[in-house]
Amino acid sequence: MTSDEVDLNGLRPADLPALSTLLGTVRVAPDQPPLRVRDLVHAPMRSGALFDGATHAELLYLRPPMPLPDVSGLPSFPLPAPDEKLGAPLDETIEERRSRHHFGPSPMSCATLSTLLHHAAGLRGYQPAYNTRTYPFRRAPSEGGLAPVDLLMVANDVSGLPQGLYLYDPADHAMAQLDRGNMRGKLTEVAPYASWLFSAHAVFLMVCDMSRVEWKYGTRGYRFVHVDVGVLTQNLYLVGTALNLTTCAVAAFDDEATCEFARLDGRERFVSLLFACGPPPGS
Fold first, then answer.
1. I need a surface site. Which of 80, 173, 182, 282 has the fewest CB within 10 A?
2. CATH 3.40.109.10 domain extents, the chain
């Protein structure tokens, strides 16, 4: 690879040793398909290929980053007390769950939002872990209990919340305001193939924070955060269905534009999935 090719591919000469190591982890037999991008991503993250995370001895004294978002200095909108019971049988909820994207005209109540977040992504409680007496655990399970996925939310039509961009604070069960204003048009810009997001009452942006997993799992943590996104997504689907909400996940969005919109660097913290919800038609 020449220096010109390095520039064209957005790589620096200093990156070449790492790239060479990455290529060296992939073994392609002559009778197999040619090398693909997913091979380069998957190969170094196999448990037997590379382990650059914390050792068992290190875990005895390491203290991880707290698995909670930093909301210091942000205006806070406390959510009302959630309903503790959903009142919907699990088997019926699973059968009823669908991805739908037609929404009703009435606002989504703040009480419904509160119950959705409480059961799908809220704080279960605190207990000793990772050399910390009060380590927080969420209702959505995650690898190692590290909870690397935060929920940003665009409020389009939620009663009691001004339109804008928010960050869910599970510790206080509140919405921390990042920005104000009508962001319907911006959503359709970053996800042009899901123009119906314009009508969604609330749109969550699932943000992966790599600092919460890499200290323990190293490179392999990149695989884990996406598994955790999937678990949280199913929680939102099932709780939303139990609450009679229209729900739909969206993977087709412009990564760079979405991270810029959400004020993320796109590397240490990035959006992995969007999730829209709101009352159904006729409600």
1. 282
2. 56-278
3-class SS at 168? Answer: strand
Residue 148, C-beta contacts closer than 8 angstroms, at least 6 positions apart? 67, 142, 208, 209, 210, 212, 213, 221, 224, 225, 228
**CA distance linking residue 161 with residue 80, whole number of Å:** 12
For the chain, the farthest-separated pair of C-alpha atoms sits apart, in whole angstroms, at: 63
Burial class (CB in 10 A: 0-12, 13-18, 19+), 73: exposed
* pLDDT tens digits along 189-247: 999 999 999 999 999 999 999 999 999 998 889 999 999 999 999 999 999 999 999 99
Can you read off the two tokens belonging to residue 50?
């590379």
Contact 104, 281 (CB under 8 A): yes
Q: Residue 272: how many CB atoms within 10 A of its CB?
A: 19
Instruction: Please compute, for residue 106, the number of CA atoms within 13 A of its CA located in the half-sphere on the CB side.
Output: 11
Q: How far apart are CA 134 and CA 112, in angstroms?
A: 29
Burial 105-133 (b: 16+ CB within 10 A, else e): eebbebbbbbbbbbbbbbbeeeeeebeee
The architecture in CATH of the region 56-278 reads: 3-Layer(aba) Sandwich (3.40)
CB-based burial label for 200 (10 Å; 0-12, 13-18, 19+)? buried
Q: Cα(49)–Cα(25) distance, rounded to whole angstroms?
A: 7
Q: How far apart are CA 72 and CA 31, in angstroms?
A: 56
- Position 3 scores a pLDDT of 45
Distance from C-alpha of 80 to C-alpha of 119, rounded to nearest angstrom: 14
Q: Residues with Cβ < 8 Å from 128, sequence gap 6 or more?
A: 134, 135
Between CA 86 and CA 56 the distance in angstroms is 40
